[in-house]
Structures are given as C-alpha cells and as structure tokens.
Design goal:
Length: 325
C-alpha cells in the first residue's frame, strides 16, 4: 500500500518596517523561536532613516530564512505589504508589524489549519495584545468555540451578522493566490487596507478559526492605525472603503460586505459618510452602528471592571448560542 503524503503549506511572513530598528530584533527573535519555522521571512524596509537596514543586515547573518528588500523612499505600509506579497513564494502569508511578537506556536497551528483547508481565504485567531514596553501581555479570545473551525464564505457572512468582530490582522494569514487576485492592499484605504483585505478574502474563500495561533499586537497610543482613525483623514479613507466595494467585478463581494454589515467606524461621523452610498446602509448596519456608537461613548464613564463584566456576559451569551447550534 502506498502511503498518501499530505504536503505542508508554505507559510511566509512579511514584515513591513519603517524606523523600527529598535524593536525589529525582538520581532525576528520570536519568529526564530517558533516550534515550526516558517518557509520564509521577508522584511520590506520602507525607506527607514534610523539605521534599520544595518541592524537587519546584521540579524540576517544568523537567520538563514530572512530576506531583505528595501524601498529607497518611504511609500507607506500598504505599498510595503504589496511589495512583500509580490516577492514571497509561499501559500499563505502573514503580514506582521515590526513591533509585533508571534506566539511560540503561531506558525505550527496556522500551518496545520492551512493544510486542512488549503483553499480558505484566511486563517485567523484570537486577539492578543502587549504593553508598549512588551512586558505585559493579554489574550482576548473571540466569542467562538475554542476549537478549530472552518467557515465557508456564506457561513462567514452569517458569523459577522451575529458575532461581529474586527480582526487583529497581525493574527491573520492570507491565502497568497487569493489575495493577489483581490489586488493586495489598496493604498487609498491606508490604515484600513489590511482589515478590508481580511474581510474580502474571508468573503471570497471562507475562513479558518484557529485558537492559539496568536501574534501579540503592541498597543501604542499614537500608532499609525489609531492616530489615523482619529484624524480628519479618516473621512477620506471611509469614502475609499465604499469606492473600493463599487469596483467593476466586485458586485458579489460588495453584497457580502453589505449583508455582513461590515464597516470600519461605528460613529456618527461614519454614518454621515454612509449617506453617500445608501445601498450600503442597511437596517442591520444602522442598528449595529447605533449600538456600538452608544457603547463607545458610555464605556469610558464606567470602570475597567464593569466593562470587563459586561463583555464577559456578552461572551457567555454568544458561546451559549453556539452550544445550541
């Protein structure tokens, strides 16, 4: 009898770097300590001026999997990610920030899920955060059964309708072929480019949830995404989100976004932008926007303990519903 050999997927890691030379050694160290190493690691330096390249060249001597590519001038994080997407040769790719830190079993668990569902659009996991100095970490499990599960494209739409959540894209592996077909990361979407791509890939090819395949996201008060989302420029990015969904050939993808009521900002400002595209503004989205906008305003008035208790009640309710399915 001839044994059937299952080919392991090639797992690539792309790290866009801009002036994070003081932190990237920590990120690369966490990758080198993986229980199962990735197929390749590519750092795309986006025109750093802090001596990052000298640091990276030194680190590369002790890390055979590491490849380096440099933009001669700063072109933005989406351009760096798109360069990495064009250069990798793996089957699935993780775009990890230069100040993220992969959990020790990240690649191993994600690789097993990708092997079981090689046509999935994404492999994703729970939220995980660390303090600015990296000394304190926190795991925030999603309100899903803590076991591996594949959601088809239509099942993922239904999941977003009932258990909506944002991705921490540092814990999302993209199907390389599918992401290239989607056009990668739109520069017009700026700090929401990776989030938009994650939803689009899940709506296209389905998604595999893998508890424990986590990457710790460093919470910085003035990070690119947080600062951008609070700025006036966010309005233009929200309009670009709608415009991207209206591209020719995106009719089915747009329908999934609309049905799932996915939107990157739940506020009155976000509602004002939505009035420009009434067919995107469904009753489900209005209700979700009102609920989350109210929570965002009221939550700061309560202590951390009360907010955590409210979230725990919500989580128990959602997980109890899973038991009934």
């Amino acid at each position: 009898m001839t044994a059937i050999q299952v080919c392991s997927p090639r797992m690539s890691v792309v790290i866009p770097n801009y002036n994070h030379g003081h932190l990237i050694a920590e990120a690369l160290s966490a990758i080198s300590l993986q229980a199962t190493p990735p197929f390749e690691v590519l750092v795309v330096d986006d025109g750093s001026t802090d001596g990052s390249m000298a640091c990276l060249q030194s680190l590369a001597t002790d890390m055979p999997l590491l490849r380096l590519h440099r933009h001669l001038e700063n072109r933005g994080v989406n351009a760096a990610c798109n360069t990495g997407l064009a250069l990798v040769s793996g089957d699935f790719v993780l775009f990890s920030a230069a100040d993220d830190r992969l959990g020790a079993e990240m690649v191993e668990r994600a690789s097993a899920a990708a092997a079981a569902f090689p046509h999935a659009g994404i492999v994703f996991s729970d939220h995980a955060e660390m303090s600015a100095d990296g000394t304190a970490t926190r795991l925030i499990p999603l309100d899903l059964p803590q076991r591996q599960r594949y959601f088809s494209d239509t099942e993922f739409v239904r999941l977003m309708q009932t258990n909506f959540f944002y991705f921490h894209v540092s814990s999302v592996w993209f199907n390389v072929k599918l992401l290239k077909g989607l056009g990668g990361f739109s520069p017009d979407l700026r700090w929401h480019g990776d989030l938009f791509a994650a939803y689009a890939a899940a709506f296209e090819g389905g998604a595999v949830y893998v508890p424990g395949a986590i990457s710790y996201f460093r919470r910085l008060p003035n990070s690119y995404g947080r600062a951008g989302s609070r700025s006036h420029a966010q309005i233009g990015v929200l309009r670009a989100w709608l415009a991207t969904c209206r591209q020719p050939g995106w009719e089915a993808r747009r329908a999934a976004f609309v049905a799932a009521a996915v939107w990157p900002e739940y506020s009155m400002r976000g509602l004002r932008v939505l009035w420009s595209d009434p067919s995107y503004l469904t009753l489900r989205l209005v209700v979700r926007l009102a609920r989350l906008a109210a929570w965002n305003r009221l939550a700061p008035l309560f202590g951390t303990g009360l907010r955590e208790r409210v979230r725990a009640i919500r989580s128990r309710y959602r997980r109890a519903r899973w038991q009934l399915k």
